[in-house]
């Protein structure tokens, strides 16, 4: 009778360990390929880009024809039928100063003139009689039918009537001149628009007492063109040249390239700035007072720029997918700086209130972000299929 086989416990333990080792290795081999797979995606090479160095200064739109209308006579303002920004036509009423006193004076003078004319009519009748009488006595005296004394009395009466009539005529002429002057003053009390334009500023309200020369309305002409006016740092005086092109961005309207037509030779000692004027004739929908900015180019520098659409946000952290030499994808955190927009005229910095302005002008060919750290020139960044790419993938 053969004996039963009894396995060695040591051998059983060894076989179990080998089984577990190879079993776990097989599972890991099966799991590895599921975490790393090939993806199709485009890449771009990070390169340095030439961008302008700029200083940006705020300014405003200003009409080329701008006048200040002032009071010519003292008085209380009776009516101001316009407000700031109103468009008015030539001859429209802007300010009316109380004309009660002037009208009362005109009425009094007209009554005085009527009385003087009535007096003149009476004097002229007597004057004509004295003239005829004097001529009659001259004939009688020649015929020796009248004495010298009678002739002298007739002559004296004639001259007296003539002098009275001349005096009254002079009085009437003087009163008429005063009436004309008063009527002119009446027109001065009505401040009218000198031409078509806009009310740029209003400095008085009804009830205000004004003195001669006091500013009342600032008025801008229409269809005469506009300037952009800005205060520029004194240190840039030599950089700004008459005839040079500058970029003007007006958030309410858009942007344009404008020519510098004037720069103030003197400087404002309180702000250490000089005034610049740029011609805005090419822009439409302009009005005085619109806020804008002028971009002064100081030169150029190289910067790492990435298209804005390749950036990925994770929990408030900005990064990109970088592809190494073996085409493996890695998540890379980067630090960004200025935002730029690329136009047909070159790169321009993007500010909060200028977002989308260049798009209105159909000038944009891309939005870019400056990379301050996290990338080096020559590295490759994934630029498409970003939602399907993940860390460790291989790019085909």
Task: Give a written overview of the molecule.
This protein is an alpha+beta fold and 396 residues long. 29% of the residues lie in helices and 37% in strands. The protein has four helices and 24 strands. It is rod-shaped and about 150 Å long. The two termini are 70 Å apart. The model is unreliable at 1-5 and 17-34 (pLDDT under 50).
Question: Main traits of this protein?
Answer:
5-stranded antiparallel β-sheet, alpha+beta, 4 helices, 6-stranded antiparallel beta barrel, 396 residues, disordered N terminus
Low-confidence stretches: 1-5, 17-34
Q: How many helical elements?
A: 4
What proportion strand?
A: 35-45%
Radius of gyration, CA atoms, in whole angstroms: 47 Å
Cα end-to-end separation:
70 Å
Sum up the overall morphology in one term: rod-shaped
For the largest sheet, list the strands in their spatial order.
Answer: 3-12-15-14-13-16
In N-to-C order, the SSE pattern is HEEEEEEEHHEEEEEEEEEEEEEEHEEE
The percentage helix is 25-40%
**Mean residue pLDDT:** 84
- Decide which structural class fits the backbone: alpha+beta
Largest sheet: 6 strands, antiparallel, barrel
How many beta-strand segments?
24
